[in-house]
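Lab meeting notes turned into a lecture example. A postdoc, R.K., suggested we walk through two folding results consecutively so the class can see how the record format repeats. The first protein's sequence and structure tokens come next.
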Amino acid sequence: MDRNLKTDVTRLNPILGKILSHATQFLQGLNERPVGVVPPNYDIASLPKEGIGTEKALEAFNNKYGAGITASSGPRYLGFVTGGSTPAAIAGDWLVSIFDQNVIGAKDSSAPEVERETISFLRQLFQISDSHSGTFVSGATMSNFVGLALARQWIAQQLKIDITHNGLYALPAIKIFSGSPHSCISKALSMLGMGKSHLQIVPCLPEREAIDLDELTKNLSRCQEPCIVVANAGTVNTADFDDLVGIAALKQEFNFWLHVDAAFGGFAACSPKYCHLVQGLDTADSIAIDAHKWLNVPYDSAMQFTRHRNLQLEVFQNNAAYLGVPAENPDFVHLTPENSRRFRALPAWFSLIAYGAQGYQDIVERDCELAQLLGEKIRSCRDFKLLAPVRLNVVCFTLSVDGQEIRLDTIKKFLEMLHDSGKVFLTPTVYGTVPAIRAAFSNWRTQQIDVQILWEALSETISSFKDSVMQ
């Protein structure tokens, strides 16, 4: 045995103690740690011939890269709808690495049963019926990928084409309709061979990111073949929601698969105040929801749900003698793109058991209240302009500088100045044709004091920014 490995085995307790101390210091220092850091140009080292052991490796990491690890899991990182990790989720995730289970479901571990129970918890949290089955995947992109793969399989069946065995070559171009699709939808279509160019953008309601049902109806009426509708439950710019009930009703007249991208908006179901926004979610053929967003579990983690597990089995079944034939309740190796699957369900199980439905209702409602608070401050300030109502947890706004055209590079320059303070992190976007800024509240740690710190940083930065613009 390598001498460093042998030493690490004998010193496992003190090593883990140092890791615990390091982790505790990091978590306790989140409020002081910069929320965003532009990393320097690191020199890429050569692989050492002889190692240095875990304790010295920790020292080497801290010396070289430690300062560049940001407080993105903290309360004032408001970009990309990023949640933090609850204490229970951290506990579960640490055990994931200790247990090191490959959750494919070969009946050699209880891990698959934990995933099944966690999926059941989540169905209840999102008010999705038992007619939906589900699995954990790596993120919203892969969750949307799985849902659209099932949609492709469904369309092939409608056309009586066996693409599982014969490929896509006999399949005509598939039309996909959506109002404000996330960029990962195009990425999934590319990976699935359906083509980004076949995603047809349907006009939205005036000053909304919600699809216009009349326009969708016109598009569907012109479509002779079965097609796909990608609905949105929480758009990234303004957290807008499509009328899921209205879209589902169109299935009585038109032949389409309804996929709902509810990456973070699905969590509206946790709250009596906001659950009306996702009314009709249960009617979807497939649903994508992210876990490392508002569920506040570590990266990477998401869920996919579908009413059509038989199609999922057709697409992802892994044919190997050592795996056997899929049973009535198929193993996860037959239901997801991965043959090797991390125990992603465990952090979610811990957090759901620790805090329950009420805990997540509190997180959702508190984040939404804080988004409303920021929206009110922006609405009452002449230096900024609110671009859309604060419907849930995302605030979309832009700069209002007299005599200055606001371009995207203007927004980026402002955000660079804002991020230099290290206090907050926001992301640029374009809303309609307007260059804008978005703040997404989804972290369990965020409090009213954090909104105050954010507002002070915005106010200080806009003052400096206007001075620099007028020079």
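The second example is placed directly after the first for contrast:
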Amino acid sequence: MDQRLSDDLADLPVLLHEARERAARFLAGVGERPVGPPPAPREPVPLPERGQGTRGALEAFERRWEPGLSASPGPRYLGFVTGGSTPAALAGDWLTSAYDQNAASGGDSSAADLERETVTWLRDLLGLPAEQGLAALGPVRVLSGTPHSSVGKALSVLGLGRSALRRVGALPGREAVDVERLEAALRELDGEPAIVVANAGTVNTADFDDLRAVAALRERYPFWLHVDAAFGAFAALSPEHAHLVDGLGAADSICLDLHKWLNVPYDSAVQFTRRRDLQARVFRNSAAYLGPLGDRPDYLHLTPENSRRLRALPAWFTLAAYGREGHAEIVRRDIALAARLGERLAAMPAYRLLAPVRLNVVCFTLASAPEHIAEVARAVAETGEALLTTTEYAGVPALRAAFSNWRTTEADVDRVAKALERAAG
């Protein structure tokens, strides 16, 4: 483990106390703090290579950023319709990051039921009836080899419809798109514009499209190239795997999830685009009380949200604390741990790998009765030793083990392997 991470883990209670003390000082003085100090423009400093640990990041934050923050939780912040945080809400927010639950699914946590109860309370508070949904609209040409399930959902949210997505096929035995078949699909469009969604790390096997080859097709066909790099973009931090993201910079837009391999709390994601002008045309909000678009538009002009929490702060802290080296160590270690589990499974007669361990995901099934793999998942979960998600790969019921946590060690992999061995009987 990176030394700064190891030191911070050992010192975690003290570091959390120091963060609490800083927060308490801020809140104690918020009533007399300048309510909205005009921020002095600051140019970004280079990403630290080694980082300075959490204590150093706290000190840098207090020196570089804290003086310019507004007193928005205070009693005289009247510019927007913005409430402060009640003591209970603040405690809940801190616990949200500490428990770091993915509330999107109720399969492994009571978080989803907590959210349902909260929504029910809010509905009752306001005297509202149960909500009803709306249907999506209209077609559009969207091509992809092995699209993530969220792509269809996004098309539905946009009103374009899930039927707009066309799978063009993957290479034999792979989840990477067949570039020749993709070109044929583009040719059939006869010059009409399209969106191509490429993968930098698929869900089941962490497979990568040939991004440079896909991007080269734009020389002959008009399309917008979006790359789903939710976790795969971080392969760039491993010298042995950086070639997998070769060509990523040629994309028109890229998305990645920071709550995955950057190890910040849910929910945190970043989108990059070559065409910020188009983004501003879509999301610009014109109102007298809002600032002008300008050369450096506020993010409310670039995203669907007009108001949101400071999601970037956890990412800033972890980058300041551990730098490039610290996060590269996490990536390299998780890749090695995935390979270790793959080797352990390959040596067990009860299991077989369904794909090579390319990066940080291990996809496997039962050697003789794949249809019973879900029972294995339940058996392992019931031991409390590990949680692996079920999936289907090439029509075969399977399990996937995805390594992205900064705490995971070889000893953890060995415990998971033993649990799997016992579950197979």
